Amino acid sequence: MSKHKPNERARPTMADVARELGVAKITVSRALSEQSTVKESTRALIRETAERMGYRLNVSARNLRQQRTRTIAVVIEMAPSHDRLMSEPYPLSLLGGIMQELTAAGQNMVLTTIDLFAAHPPSTDGVILLGQGVHDDAAAMIEATGLPYVVWGAAHGPPERIVVGSDNRDGGRLAADYLLGKQRTKLLFLGETQHGEVDDRLGGFEAALTGTGAAIVDRVACAFTVAAGREAVSKLLERGRGFDGIFAASDAIAMGAIEAVEAQGLSVPGDVSVVGFDDSPGASLFSPRLTSVRQDWATGGALLAQKVLDLVSGKRVESRAMPVELVARES
Amino acid sequence: MSKHKPNERARPTMADVARELGVAKITVSRALSEQSTVKESTRALIRETAERMGYRLNVSARNLRQQRTRTIAVVIEMAPSHDRLMSEPYPLSLLGGIMQELTAAGQNMVLTTIDLFAAHPPSTDGVILLGQGVHDDAAAMIEATGLPYVVWGAAHGPPERIVVGSDNRDGGRLAADYLLGKQRTKLLFLGETQHGEVDDRLGGFEAALTGTGAAIVDRVACAFTVAAGREAVSKLLERGRGFDGIFAASDAIAMGAIEAVEAQGLSVPGDVSVVGFDDSPGASLFSPRLTSVRQDWATGGALLAQKVLDLVSGKRVESRAMPVELVARES
DNA sequence: ATGAAAGCGCTAACAA
DNA sequence: TTGTTAGCGCTTTCAT
Description:
The structure is a homodimer. By secondary structure, the first copy, chain A, is of the alpha/beta class. Chain A folds into three domains: 8-57, lambda repressor-like DNA-binding domains (434 Repressor (Amino-terminal Domain)); 70-165 and 297-320, Rossmann fold, CATH 3.40.50; 168-294, Response regulator (Rossmann fold). The first copy, chain A, is 41% helix and 17% strand. Chain A contains twelve helices and twelve strands. Chain A has helices at 14-21, 25-32, 40-53, 59-66, 92-104, 114-119, 137-145, 168-181, 196-209, 226-238, 251-263, 297-312, and strands at residues 71-76, 108-113, 126-130, 149-152, 163-166, 186-190, 215-220, 245-248, 273-278, 291-294, 320-322, 325-327. In chain A, the strands form two sheets. A six-stranded parallel β-sheet of chain A has the order 2-1-3-4-5-11, sandwiched between helices. In chain A, strands 7-6-8-9-10-12 form a six-stranded mixed β-sheet, sandwiched between helices. In chain A, helix 5 (92-104) links the parallel strand 1 and strand 2 (108-113). In chain A, helix 1 packs across helix 2. Chain A is elongated. The first copy, chain A, starts with 13 loop residues before the first helix and ends with a strand. Chains A and B meet through helix 4, helix 5, strand 2 and helix 6 of A and helix 4, helix 5, strand 2 and helix 6 of B. Chains A, B: Residues 12-66 form the HTH lacI-type domain. Chains A, B: This is LacI family DNA-binding transcriptional regulator. Chains A, B: InterPro entries: HTH_LacI, LacI/GalR-like_sensor, Lambda_DNA-bd_dom_sf, Peripla_BP_I. Chains A, B: One of its GO terms (molecular function) is DNA binding. Chains A, B: Keywords: DNA-binding, Transcription, Transcription regulation.
């Protein structure tokens, strides 16, 4: 019958299904997308025939025709790994929140690194960027694509950029209040302030300290890992203990710091009080159980997703800082 | 000049760039994909012009024309969340291994749930499925798409299905050997054996016990959470302690079990020895530090990615069970 | 080294 | 309720 193609191995297209039934392919299109303008009996027939022939929609073709992809890119700065699980600033639960929301909206999510995104841009309608990168370079790269995008992090960029993040300044304040409540006066800050969010944490911490008698006696730039925290504090302790309280920019750093303190025969919280950040899963498992500032990752992720989808559909959108909460435990 | 379109707001296409320079659009295409058949000077000119005009490749159009998407779908069974971080059978590091490998191959990754995949199939060349689902239903659904796919889990399905997973039977054996070495003889197994991987763990555990004088005295189906582990063991202990060793299908379950044991005034490992599974990040933080069977997630993820890409490019591919390792700690 | 024509598979717009 | 026509933006094929 079909003189066009001698029955190749390839999968059938709408044209094939249409020819089989003697209808126009637009009718097949309408039927399979359940449009009510097609008679229900016709729809059923087409559905069955398509099924029987093994027909599958070619998503690329539809994306091209409709000029949209129902896909959002989530761009992270580096690949996750086992030893970074707890220390990563952007954990699985942030992704979970994003995914939940995108899924509910029927949107797919392509997960990619900043490098891959630059080299092989995927086909997407919008972008969620987790972390601006040092000096905003990641955000600038995304901006250049012209796609709608939102960022997780600190609002240090241009004011028109949509940013969702925790209220890191307030997190710093909470940490300060906790340490002040423990009568700590000589405080140590551990964290890399090149990172906008960490800078905000330090800012809020300092602000809450002014006029209290307590003060920051030292600050050490420090990666988000247990090892980095341990090393930083070990070095400091070699020249004697000049502090009685620590605010660490992540729980991993805090754990490393505590290990270093205890390695000197000192006790936490006896000699030194410690506050971490993130309330990671390990915080309540660690010994001593870690006091930490909790971020609401899941809600943050959901907000990111909502906002980027709103941007895609042309709505106006605003930045948002999410409240944080101090979880007081033993440290 | 351009009489076709009165300079719309839309982004320029290759045709626009071509018209601007008075060349054919195919030349623009060739130049931008750096084909050596185009004179270098022409290439440079086209590159600059495209850049100046803000040209961006339309990936959907290319995907349609080339009949491939450079994208692999990773299908998970449910969205990750904070409280599941440690207990999930498929953690971030598995994803990390997949991502690393796909990224290196210039492939994008779309992360999706089984439901979303069914409702809105993304445009992909292949699928990595994490977990077959109960009764294989997830795998069957993927199979029906006709796309090349590989599965993480246990090789309980049809033999032609490509499966990558840990050697769970050997993991069970290692757990048995450890408990036997601690002179434990009345053993408890905690885990949901509907789950193929867990079933293999139990199988290897039982096999290693035969003819040793030790035996399984009880087994409880149990979700992958701390709470489920705690509850299962609490219930058992209400009628007295009939066991002196526990093999739990995950570290989270093991932690819950230990909490329940200690809540009765018993000690781990004094009265009861416990082996977990996964060696999750919390295992070494927990008190007592948890003995656990470690899976090599990152390598597993990398293998999954390699194999699905091989399938996509028509190569022959085989299933693979990865070695596991017992990490002996305090429990 | 460059170009012209064709068409990937789908759906919007406009008939009938 | 169904059909016709056109075209999304790109790259393959075949010419020049």
